Automatic annotation (TrEMBL):
It comes from the Bacteria. This is 3-oxoacyl-ACP reductase. Belongs to the short-chain dehydrogenases/reductases (SDR) family. SMART domains: PKS_KR (SM00822). Residues 231-406 form the Ketoreductase domain. It comes from Marinobacter profundi. NCBIfam families: PRK08261.1 (NF006110). Signal peptide: none annotated. Pfam families: adh_short_C2. The lineage of its organism: Bacteria, Pseudomonadati, Pseudomonadota, Gammaproteobacteria, Pseudomonadales.
Length: 469
C-alpha cells in the first residue's frame, strides 16, 4: 500500500511545503536489505553507569560488528573483550564531538538509586544531537521486578519513562529508542535482542520495553545469516498482508514454512508457499476439526514443529449496541480461541520441539481499546493474557510472546475511510504507517534460537503510536 504523503514530503517542493505549513515531515525508514548485511554500520557510542554487567557483553558484540565503537570516558567503563574486531576508542563528552553516531547505547543496569539517573543526562545530553537519521537509542536496565530495594526499582523503572519520551523526540528523524530490562545473569543472553534493536529490522519499533530472562545452560550458536535453518514454522493467515510477510521473512532466515489460510484463499496461499518452497494448508482455524487437522499435517510432513505464528485475524467493527452477535462470536473465535485450541492440541500430542517458539499477533487496539472494536479489542487483549500466563508454564526452552501492531499498510488498513487512515498513519512518533515486514522482523527476533530468554513479552510494532501506553 502506498503512502503518497510520505513520498511527497521527501521531494524538495514537499519539504518546503511541509515546513511552511507546519505539517509532519516523516523520513523514509531504512529497512533490512541483504542477508549478509552487518546488523549495524557506522559509529556507535557506548556508556554505562555504576558497575553494569551488560557493558562487557555489549563491548564484545559491538566490537565484532562492522560498526566503529567508542566509549564515553568519564561516564563509561567499557571493557571491549579480547577477540573483538574493533577496539573501542574513548570519547570525552565534555569537549566538542565531531562524530555522527548510528547508535547511542547505555548500560544502566548497574544503577542502584535515583541519584544515579543523572548519568543518563550526562551521557545523552551532549550526544543526542549527534545521532544520525534512522539512528538507534538503546538502554539496558535491570528488570524492576527483580530489584532488591525500592530505590533501585525506582531508578530502573524510570528508564522506561526516559526511553518513551526520547523516542518521541527523535522519531521525526526516523530514529527509535528502546529499553531492554534484563534479569540478573541475563546479560550473557542479550545478543539476538541487541542485534534486533540496533538494526534496520526494528525500523518501526520505538518506545518499547522488552524483558530478557536468565536462561539455564548455554544457548546454541546460531548462524547470523540464516538463524532459523532446520526449523519448521506454521504461519496462519499466510496468503496475504502481514502473514505473507512473516512467511517470507522466516523462510529468508532459513525456516521451512507451512502456510495456512482459509480454503477460499488457497490460490493466493499457494503462490506464497511456492515462492518460498513451503507447504500450503487450507484450513479454517475456527473449524472444530482444525487443531487435529493441523497436528496431523505437522506429524505427517515434519514429525514436529518449532515455530507457531498465530497471525490470522479479522475485524468485525460495529459499536457495541449495534453489533450483531455473530460479529462478536467470530472476532473472539478467530483472534483468540482458535489460537488456544491449536496450541493445546500441539502440546497434547507433544509436537512442539524443544526451544520452540509460539508468537501471537495482538494489536494496539487490544492495549488501548478502539471505537467500534469492543469485540476485536477484547480478543486481542485476551491474547496478551494468554501469552503472559502460558509463558510461565512452558518448559524445555519453549517461549511465547506477542507483537502488537499499530497502523500497518495492508488491505485491512487500505479499506479504512480516508480520514481515519490518515490519522492512523500520522499519529505516531515516526509519522507514518509500518510495513508488514516490520511485524515480521519482530517475530523473527522472537523466533531466533538466541531469544530463549525473551518470554512473555508484548512488544508493539507501531512507530510509538500516540494511542495507548
Ligand atoms: P489481512 O486481512 O490482510 O490478513 C489476515 C489473513 O488471515 C487473511 O489471509 C485471512 O484469510 C486469514 N484468516 C482470517 N480468518 C481466518 C480463519 N478463520 N482461518 C484461517 N485464516 C484466516 O490482515 P493483516 O492486516 O495482514 O493482519 C494480520 C494480523 O495482524 C491480524 O491478526 C490482525 O488482527 C493483526 N493486526 C493488523 C494490523 C494492521 O494495521 N494491518 C494492526 C494490528 C493488528
Amino acid at each position: 500500500m502506498s503512502d503518497l504523503y510520505l513520498k511527497f514530503v521527501n521531494t524538495p517542493v514537499g519539504k518546503t511545503a511541509a515546513q511552511t505549513l507546519g505539517l509532519p515531515a516523516p523520513v523514509p525508514l531504512k529497512r533490512w536489505k541483504r542477508a549478509d548485511q552487518p546488523f549495524i554500520e557506522g559509529d556507535v557510542l557506548v556508556g554505562a553507569a555504576g558497575n553494569g554487567k551488560a557493558i562487557a557483553a555489549l563491548g564484545s558484540l559491538l566490537g565484532a560488528s562492522a560498526a566503529s565503537l567508542h566509549h564515553a570516558s568519564g561516564v563509561a567503563t567499557l571493557e571491549a573483550s579480547s577477540g573483538a574486531g574493533n577496539k573501542a576508542r574513548p570519547l570525552d563528552l565534555t569537549t566538542e564531538i565531531n562524530t555522527r553516531f548510528s547508535a547511542l547505547v547505555f548500560d544502566a543496569s548497574g544503577m542502584k538509586d535515583t541519584a544515579e539517573l543523572r548519568a543518563l543526562y550526562d551521557f545523552y545530553h551532549p550526544t543526542i544531537r549527534k545521532l544520525a537519521g534512522n539512528g538507534r537509542i538503546l538502554v539496558i536496565g535491570l528488570d524492576p521486578a527483580g530489584c532488591k530495594s525500592p530505590a533501585q526499582a525506582a531508578a530502573q523503572r524510570a528508564l522506561e519513562g526516559f526511553v518513551r519520551s526520547v523516542g518521541k523526540e527523535i522519531g521525526k528523524k526516523g530514529s527509535t529508542a528502546n529499553l531492554l530490562w534484563i534479569a540478573p545473569g541475563a546479560e550473557k543472553h542479550l545478543d539476538s535482542s541487541v542485534r534486533f534493536f540496533l538494526s534496520p529490522r526494528s525500523a518501526y519499533v520505538s518506545g518499547q520495553v522488552a524483558r530478557i530472562g536468565k536462561v539455564t545452560g548455554e544457548l546454541a550458536a546460531t548462524n547470523p545469516v540464516a538463524p532459523l535453518t532446520g526449523k519448521v514454522a506454521l504461519v496462519t493467515g499466510a496468503s496475504r498482508g502481514i502473514g505473507e510477510s512473516i512467511a517470507e521473512t522466516l523462510a529468508r532466515d532459513g525456516a521451512t514454512v507451512i502456510g495456512l489460510d482459509i480454503p477460499a484463499a488457497l490460490e493466493d496461499l499457494q503462490r506464497v508457499t511456492d515462492r518460498i518452497k513451503g507447504k500450503a494448508l487450507a484450513c479454517d482455524i475456527t473449524d472444530a476439526r482444525a487443531p487435529a487437522m493441523i497436528a496431523e499435517f505437522v506429524k505427517e510432513h515434519f514429525g514436529g514443529i518449532d515455530l507457531i505464528i498465530h497471525n490470522a485475524g479479522i475485524t468485525r467493527d460495529k459499536t457495541l449496541g449495534n453489533m450483531p452477535e455473530h460479529f462478536w462470536d467470530m472476532a473472539i473465535a478467530v483472534n483468540l480461541t482458535a489460537e488456544e485450541l491449536i496450541d493445546e492440541e500441539l502440546m497434547k500430542q507433544e509436537l512442539i520441539r524443544d526451544n520452540g517458539r509460539i508468537v501471537c499477533v495482538s494489536s494496539i487496539s487490544g492495549i488501548a481499546g478502539n471505537f467500534g472494536q469492543t469485540n476485536y479489542s477484547t480478543a486481542k487483549c485476551g491474547v496478551i493474557g494468554y501469552v503472559e500466563a502460558l509463558a510461565r508454564k512452558l518448559k524445555n526452552g519453549i517461549t511465547i510472546n506477542a507483537v502488537a501492531p499499530g497502523f500497518i499498510e495492508t488491505q485491512m488498513t487500505a479499506a479504512m475511510p480516508v480520514t481515519i487512515r490518515e490519522a492512523g498513519r500520522r499519529m505516531n512518533s515516526l509519522s507514518q504507517g509500518g510495513q508488514p515486514v516490520d511485524v515480521a522482523e519482530a517475530i523473527a527476533w522472537y523466533c531466533n534460537p538466541g531469544s530463549t530468554g525473551v518470554n512473555g513479552n508484548v512488544v508493539r510494532v507501531c512507530g510509538q503510536s500516540l494511542i495507548g501506553k
